[in-house]
Write a structure and sequence with these properties.
Length: 199
């Protein structure tokens, strides 16, 4: 059975990826994705001062984000080389911990790190260093959106309490008028935290 699965899985993945490329691919039907597509991304795209945007962590359901941000200087970064296929043209294969090796200080306007902590970025020291290095690369008042699942199996440490978030101010995100939005319809309780970089 597992041999059959291991033969069928890559075929299914390639069919799905081909459908994505043809613009008829599936979309993840979850509240967090709707909130992103309908509220968060349109706001960010509409902000003319947010030109250089880094999106961390790529998966099949993030494939179309490069189209959403087509008018921006849009970059993606993902630790898994195999997921380069879901990234932007300007893609970096590395851990977000090393973001400062790829971008100059104060050179990014926005960093979107969605569902990475608790999904691979599980060591609090590495996560803290990642947030510090993101802060270094963001310009003053640059935007960080960090999202995570508020359930024990994907909350390996108190995520929002990392000391490096002290370098940021909570940002009441205009469409929500709040610096946090919790997707309460979702079992994973996906939580968006909004920050601006203080320098
Ligand atoms: C649950 S997926 C989230 C995908 C996407 N960011 C989103 O919108 O949901 C987590 C992704 O983060 C990647 N990841 C985990 N640790 C990472 C790290 N240290 N640096 C960069 N990417 C990492 C994983 O390989 C995986 O593709």
């Amino acid at each position: 059975m597992s041999i059959v699965k291991s033969l069928v899985k890559p075929v299914g993945r390639n069919v799905r990826d081909l459908m994505l490329i043809c613009g008829v691919g599936p979309k993840l039907d979850e509240q967090d994705r709707r909130v992103l597509d309908e509220t968060i991304f349109p706001y960010l795209v509409g902000r003319e001062d947010l030109k250089r945007v880094l999106f961390v962590g790529c998966h099949w359901y993030t494939w179309h984000y490069k189209k959403t941000f087509a008018d921006k200087d849009f970059w993606t970064l993902e630790i898994d080389p195999a997921r380069k296929r879901y990234g932007a043209k300007q893609h970096i294969v590395d851990s977000v911990e090393h973001v400062d090796q790829h971008f100059e200080a104060n050179s990014l306007d926005a960093v979107l790190m969605l569902g990475v902590m608790g999904w691979g970025l599980d060591d609090p020291e590495v996560a803290n260093r990642s947030v510090e290095n993101i802060h270094r690369c963001l310009r003053p008042d640059g935007v960080l959106i960090n999202s995570w699942d508020d359930v024990p199996e994907h909350r390996p440490f108190p995520i929002a309490e990392l000391p490096a978030f002290g370098r940021f101010a909570p940002w009441p995100f205009p469409p929500f008028v709040a610096a946090r939005f919790v997707c309460e319809e979702q079992d994973l309780q996906h939580t968006f935290d909004f920050y601006t970089a203080t320098k």
